[in-house]
UniProtKB/TrEMBL annotation, chain A:
InterPro entries for the chain: ExoRNase_PH_dom1, ExoRNase_PH_dom2, ExoRNase_PH_dom2_sf, PNPase/RNase_PH_dom_sf, Ribosomal_Su5_D2-typ_SF, RNase_PH
Compartment(s) of residence: Cytoplasm; Nucleus, Nucleolus
Family: Belongs to the RNase PH family.
Domain of life from the UniProt record: Eukaryota
CDD domains linked: RNase_PH_RRP41
Keywords: Cytoplasm, Exosome
GO MF annotation, one: RNA binding
GO cellular component, one term: cytoplasmic exosome (RNase complex)
Organism encoding this protein: Carya illinoinensis (Pecan)
Listed name of the protein: Exosome complex component RRP41 homolog
From TrEMBL, chain B:
Gene3D superfamilies: GHMP Kinase, N-terminal domain
One GO cellular component term noted in the UniProt record for this chain: nuclear exosome (RNase complex)
UniProt organism field: Carya illinoinensis
One term of GO molecular function: mRNA 3'-UTR AU-rich region binding
Protein's recorded name: Ribosomal RNA-processing protein 43
């Protein structure tokens, strides 16, 4: 099947180096300490952060750091066919672990000992790149909750089909069987915290695809920064400054 | 805010927020005596309600309903199934209500909220099955829990069913039903139903939850009010003002029939408001 036609357009009309349209909104869940909705094309994800708060299970309390917990779940209607077991299956458990470890690296946990930070991510619509959308939404939610972070974490995926590196794969391109590289990136510190790849790719091509994903992460970081600045301005207006 | 010094105790020297946390019942009673609630609403008024149809594009029908801060997302997915022997003309509907941990600080992952199965059961009793041998899976997700969960859930479920369009299907060679492709090209097989059609609903249920406290009736409680004053009454009426269900699960306040009739009167008013909001949302969709 042809994923990139001879004119250089993909199945949804994008160019190979073009990301899908991103949209983010802060403060979607009133009850949460911090929350955000993040959309990348048709993938829509909502993240809520509760914390820092008292540890619910005393035996897990850490005396010098905060405990970070994360749960990823997909709504039953998020994918094309209705899902039977939206959480507790292997994929959700793995993604929960991945998101937790990625966010833990950038939260300054030593500032909040003996407390707990919960990150809950719910996928409302899935069209490829859910992992990346979840990490981006979690970053915004943590910033909205006022939790001290070393840097923003942004994420984007890239692949390689029909001899072309492609940025930000959607579901059809992802299920094509080609490689899928997901990168989690700290823009200010210029460091990579998450790097996952499946399928096969030669080393020199991998360099290219990873760089492409990092460029995507930087673009997402710019957008997230704009959203956060806009949010801060709104808060200032409301306080009458 | 200067509080009238009723009993010369701590309450007159404290700040409003501290008083609200430490003596919530007295805080509320001070307001109820003036026939008003802390958020400024009169006792019989519900919070601002909005409905957005078609929130989830991958589902056959969906709706997002917000009552105040309480947010519910409902989506319907249709699957073809073989009908049962006793009722070959009827399909069925499976309703599932989820409270994911994002909705409230008191829901812990791994343990479903206490409210979830109760609301699930109430919804199943209220909504009746559709036509043809379709299986409809209705999933409702609570995205923000701020009181009146059943009302918001029922509203979003009803709106999603309103928005539902049953996909066109055709019979393929194996005798199985497949969903027709929508590419606008030639269809090799004759479609069983030519185009997507909307579900015909007999009558639409709407509900209102009220709290009874001493001799006050508060309509549409927030989660703070629900936590302090525990006696709830939920009334479900349909669009022709017939009573579908009445639910009063115990509680400290024993209600005379007059109180129940007042609740029903408030619900009747609310039904008219909700009907208008649903119609506006629907016509808003058709203009596009």
């Amino acid at each position: 099947m042809e994923y990139v036609n001879p004119e250089g357009l993909r199945l949804d009309g994008r160019r190979p180096m073009e990301m899908r349209q991103i949209r983010a909104e802060i403060g979607a869940v009133a009850k949460a300490d911090g929350s955000a909705v993040f959309e990348m094309g048709n993938t829509k994800v909502i993240a809520a952060v509760y914390g820092p708060r008292e540890v619910q299970n005393r035996s897990q309390q850490i005396s010098d750091k905060a405990l970070v917990r994360c749960e990823y779940s997909m709504a039953n209607f998020s994918t094309g066919d209705r899902m039977r077991k939206p959480k507790g299956d292997r994929r959700s458990t793995e993604i929960s672990l991945v998101i937790r470890q990625t966010m833990e690296a950038c939260i300054m946990t030593h500032l909040m000992p003996r407390s707990q930070i919960d990150i809950f991510v719910q996928v409302l619509q899935a069209d490829g790149g859910t992992r990346s959308a979840c990490i981006n939404a979690a970053t915004l939610a943590l910033a909205d909750a006022g939790i001290p972070l070393r840097d923003l974490v942004t994420s984007c995926s890239a692949g390689y089909l029909n001899s072309t590196p492609l940025l930000d794969l959607n579901y059809v391109e992802d299920s094509a069987g080609g490689p899928d590289v997901t990168v989690g990136f700290l823009p200010k510190l210029d460091k990579v915290t998450l790097l996952q790849m499946d399928s096969k790719l030669s080393i020199d091509l991998f360099e290219n695809v990873m760089q492409l994903a990092i460029e995507g992460c930087k673009a997402v970081a710019n957008y997230i920064r704009e959203i956060l600045l806009e949010n801060t301005k709104q808060l200032e207006y409301r306080r009458g400054l | 805010m200067g509080l009238p010094d009723a009993s010369g105790d701590l309450s007159s020297e404290m700040e409003v927020d501290a008083f609200r946390r430490l003596f919530p019942l007295r805080f509320y009673e001070r307001h109820l005596a003036e026939s008003i609630r802390p958020d400024g609403r009169p006792l019989g008024r519900a919070r601002d309600t909005t409905i957005a149809l078609g929130a989830v594009t991958s589902a056959d029908g969906s709706a997002l309903a917000k009552i105040g801060s309480t947010t519910m997302l409902a989506a319907v997915k249709m699957e073809v199934m073989t009908p049962s022997m006793e009722s070959p003309d009827e399909g069925c509907i499976a309703i599932d209500f989820h409270m994911p941990p994002i909705c409230s600080p008191i829901v812990r992952p791994g343990r479903p909220a206490e409210a979830a199965p109760v609301v699930s059961k109430q919804l199943s009793d209220t909504i009746s099955s559709g036509k043809a041998a379709w299986m409809a899976y209705l999933d409702i997700y609570c995205l923000d829990a701020d009181g009146a969960l059943f009302d918001a859930a029922l509203l979003s479920a009803v709106a999603a069913l309103f928005h539902l369009q049953i996909p066109a299907v055709s019979l393929n060679d194996d005798g199985k039903i497949v969903v027709s492709e929508e590419d606008g090209g030639k269809l090799e097989k004759e479609p069983v139903n030519k185009e997507k059609r909307k579900l015909t609903l007999r009558s639409i249920p709407f509900s209102l939850t009220c709290i009874l406290h001493k001799n006050y009736i508060l309509a549409d409680p927030t989660s703070e009010e629900e936590a302090i004053m525990e006696t709830l009454v939920t009334v479900v009426l349909d669009s022709s003002s017939q009573l579908i269900s009445l639910y009063k699960p115990g509680g400290a306040v024993l209600a005379y029939t007059s109180a129940v009739q007042d609740c029903i009167a408030l619900t009747r008013q609310r039904v008219r408001e909700l009907q208008k909001i649903l119609d506006e949302a629907n016509s808003g969709m058709e203009v596009d």
